[in-house]
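Form P-L/3: holo structure prediction, ligand FE2/S2 (inorganic) cluster.
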Amino acid sequence: MAARQRLICASGALLDGGAGVRFELDTPSGPRPAFVVRFEGLPRAFLNACAHVPVELDWLEGAFFDADGAYLICATHGATYHPVTGVCVAGPCRGASLQKLPVAEIDGGIWLLDDSG
Ligand code: FES
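OUTPUT (holo model):
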């Protein structure tokens, strides 16, 4: 299993289909916005960049889900993403995908995992 890279938040901060937690991902080109939500019991994390135009998805901070808590939705033009795969299922970039990030729930916390090898 991949090593823990850093703690994003406590497990209790994420409710299934509820508000997400934003964090920054360190990349060689500098920090990039990212977020984690809980869906079907597990944490799911992605870069916070729409596949249509690379703007952040949440217009209201942490509001990543649609009204039913079933899909992630971009506040700008409504692209709708599957919360497990990150694939756009409806909207202007249908078939494109959010960039998924490796996370896990360990010891009561949500951890970003190191997938660099
Ligand atoms: S920028 Fe996200 S749907 Fe257009």
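COMMENT: The two ends are 10 Å apart (CA to CA).
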